Amino acid sequence: LSEKLSGIFEGLTRRGALSADDVNASMREVRRALLEADVSLEVVRTFVEKVRERAVGADVVKSVTPGQMVIKIVNDVLIDTLGDTADPISLDAAPPVAIMMVGLQGAGKTTTTAKIAKRLKDRHKSKVLMASLDVKRPAAQEQLAILGRQVGVDTLPIVAGQSPVQIARRAEEAARLQGYDVVMFDTAGRTHIDEPLMAEMAEIKTAARPHEILLVADALTGQDAVNLAKSFNERVGITGIVLTRIDGDGRGGAALSMRSVTGKPIKLIGTGEKMDALEDFHPQRIANRILGMGDIVSLVERAAETIDAKEAMKIAEKMKKGKFDLDDLSNQLAQMEKLGGLGGIMGMLPGMGKMKDQLAAAGMNDGMIKRQRAIISSMTKLERRNPDILKNSRKKRIAAGSGTKVEELNRLLKQHRQMADMMKMMGGAGAKRGALGKMA
Ligand code: GDP
Ligand code: MG
Fold it and tell me: Domain check: are 175 and 76 in the same one?
């Protein structure tokens, strides 16, 4: 997808303000990209209009191409639409604060109930009571009880033969009398939206008087997302959305669809089956997923701000001459850290989401950047200039001095050699683009 998008925008290489033609030419492709990401049709339509309004006539920043400018605007509108703050769960009410979970069967309600309860217990030291109102699926109440024991959160004792509303009342009373801070209601779902489900949810809502009503939805939900979110919001009224299975290969379109039609914040995302696989919502991550591209422009902007121009010139000169020593590598690593570490950089580059996972799997991470800098700073000036003189005894000393292992030092040296060779090959062209060119 990112290749496709870069392709689309390559045509737009003139400078100046974006013309209606520039923008129109790309809108058809943006629309296609959104549909491919599983954004609902009607949401795509309004989104494209918003982008068009903002883009036509917009000034193209000097240092970027009109194509990059359009990318930035698409990205910005996406972030605005998704909501630009992580909105945590509100406990701002008289205890016991009631939280009701709604959604279709298999969306992840029960799992998410336990995950949230664990989070509230761990982070807010809340005393939480969970109650399953799912009397349809055999063993649904037992499932919540098992998860409760796993995360160390109480569940309402199971009484056979009660209706969801009766259980809700019993839970509310128990929470009140026993001094719980939070009471969570896990409800039953259906495979699809129907009137009995909505009626049951409305009834439970009346009994439970929830402060938060969270719609739990699978990130894989495609064109159904709009109908799902609309129905629950209009009929029951939701206060937020939890998107589950973000770890699967969902393309993130559901987030944009549901947020657009309800205006309700996406509060949390589920990233796995484990009880701690629950994270705050970061719009930029979803935006990257939807468009399969990073915020190239902001990388360019931030790099320009952060990278010390003089330092970059010095490195560029050395690169031209094919000289790139370990001091230079250390400077580069420092600049990477300033840019927000590997995650920060990768997140902003197109198509780098996967690459980041691969790097992580290979043990490349921000901790490694720190350790590499520690290794280099444990070397003498002479060693940094001439890494070739590093033999076993020197290596042992450096590893001990930096609290690392000789293998890690060897890896660093190999990486440095590869970079130096690459720079010799790139010669002048690479030198001009400096640090950024290499990272991209
Ligand atoms: P419910 O019917 O809405 O209560 O759904 P459940 O909570 O029972 O979840 C259905 C299945 O989805 C279970 O096997 C969960 O482990 C799994 N599940 C829930 N959330 C996530 C998630 O964020 N990622 C993954 N990979 N699986 C999840
Ligand atoms: Mg359930």
Answer: no
- Determine if the peptide bond prior to 88 is cis (ω within 30°): no
420 is in an annotated binding site: no
> pTM for this one?
0.68
**234 and 142 fall within a common domain:** yes
Say if residue 363 is exposed, middle or buried (CB neighbours under 10 Å; 0-12, 13-18, 19+).
Answer: exposed
Q: Is the CB of 141 under 6 A from ligand 1?
A: no
Alpha helices in 11-82 (DSSP H): 20-36, 41-55, 66-82
> Do 218 and 123 lie in a common domain?
yes
ipTM score for this prediction:
0.99
- Ligand 1 centroid distance, CA of 78 (Å): 27
Quick one: DSSP state of residue 238? -
Q: How far is the CA of 189 from the centre of ligand 1 (A)?
A: 13
Which residues are within 5 Å of ligand 2 (an ion), measured at CB? 109-110
In a domain, 151, yes or no: yes
Per-residue pLDDT tens digits for 66-105 = 666 777 788 889 889 998 666 689 898 999 999 999 999 9
**Domain limit, last residue, from 272, 290, 308:** 290
Q: Which domain holds residue 410?
A: 296-439
